Amino acid sequence: SKQRKELGLRTLEKPKMCVCTNPDQQADGITAKNLRFSYGKHRVLNIPSLCLPKGKVVALVGPNGAGKTTLARTLIGLAHPEGGSVISFSGKSCRAADRQKRSVLVMQDVNRQLFAETVATEVVLGNDNLSKEQVQALLGDLGLQGLSERHPMTLSGGQKQRLVIANALASQAELYVFDEPTSGVDYQHLLSISSQIRSLAAKDKAILIISHDLEFINEVADYQLLLQPLDSEINVQLTAPDQEKH
Ligand SMILES: Nc1ncnc2c1ncn2[C@@H]1O[C@H](COP(=O)(O)OP(=O)(O)OP(=O)(O)O)[C@@H](O)[C@H]1O
Ligand SMILES: [Mg+2]
Predict the structure, then answer these.
(1) Domain membership flag for residue 90
(2) Which tens digit of pLDDT belongs to each residue from 25-62?
(3) Rounded to an integer, what distance in angstroms lies between the CA atom of residue 168 and that of residue 126?
(4) Separation of 71 CA from ligand 1 center, angstroms?
(5) What is the DSSP letter of 185?
(6) Cα(70) to centroid(ligand 1), Å
(7) pLDDT-wise least confident of 1-10, 151-160, 199-208, 209-218
């Protein structure tokens, strides 16, 4: 794998398996208890307990339709769970509006998340206290140097994606959710996105990444959380098989 990396090839290793820790032991992160969510009569989530520890990157995996996006949207306060569900930030139950303020979402469709007239302004949006130097450093780290004055919509797909990520990285949230952040990016950019996300983790943020990209998961994640489709009344299964750590 090291050799493949040197050759710039994308490697495939067995993904690290993971954890769904007991929220009582992890009051310090984002926790959910009795989390239930339904679209009308169709229940999608039924999760007895779940924890995203601070300072860790959790990869959320599972088949299409399992409810990954729904879970992410619920955690960040964009979707409302059923009564009785409790979502806490740092041990304190937290309402949807408050969760929204304390979270950042990078959606899969980046075209819907670019608003500014220039690349540099896009990075600063919502991040008022960022200096020019910090903006340039961030753009450089994500391979966007020299593009400051371009209109975001004139960038390539991969560049747009990294720009949305740059804006998210600069924000002062506690929970970061990335939905498929590496779709269509090459290996070098996969590495720079990984390293930026690792530096967010080093700042003690809780990070959830929805991804099918095993190589990216291997590179960036501490834990892998498997979400199974909810079969009628049966619980979502969150497996914690090997407990094999990073
Ligand atoms: N707005 C909606 N109204 C009704 N049902 C929905 C809605 N959004 C999603 N669903 C259903 O809820 C279930 C979970 O969807 P969700 O998009 O959360 O899954 P996912 O794991 O993110 O899937 P994918 O891997 O395809 O992105 C699916 O059965 C889906 O059809
Ligand atoms: Mg989805």
Answers:
(1) yes
(2) 556 789 998 899 999 988 899 888 888 989 999 999 88
(3) 9
(4) 10
(5) -
(6) 6
(7) 1-10
Pick the atom of ligand 1 nearest to 62's CA: 21
Which residues have C-beta under 5 Å from ligand 2, the single-atom ion? 68-69
Using CA atoms, how far apart are residues 13 and 219, in angstroms rounded to an integer? 10
Whether residue 61 contacts residue 225, with contact meaning beta carbons closer than 8 Å, is answered with yes
What does 32-61 look like in DSSP terms, one character per residue?
EEEEEEEETTEEEEEEEEEEE-TT-EEEEE
Question: How confident is the model at residue 241, as a pLDDT?
Answer: 37
Report the chain's C-alpha Rg in angstroms.
Answer: 18
- Residue 66 Cβ inside 6 Å of ligand 1? The answer reads yes
Task: Kindly report the number of other CB atoms within 10 A of residue 164's CB atom.
Answer: 24
**CB crowding 131-140: b at 16 or more within 10 Å, else e:** eeeebbebbe
114 assigned to some structural domain: no
Helices 132-141 and 187-202 pack at an angle, to 10 degrees, of 130
Q: Tell me how many degrees the CA angle 24-29-181 measures, rounded to the nearest 5.
A: 135
Predicted confidence (pLDDT) at residue 22 exceeds the cutoff of 50: no
Q: Provide the CATH number for the domain around residue 52.
A: 3.40.50.300
Whole-angstrom distance, CA of residue 134 vs CA of residue 63: 38
Question: Residue 155 falls within a domain, yes or no?
Answer: no
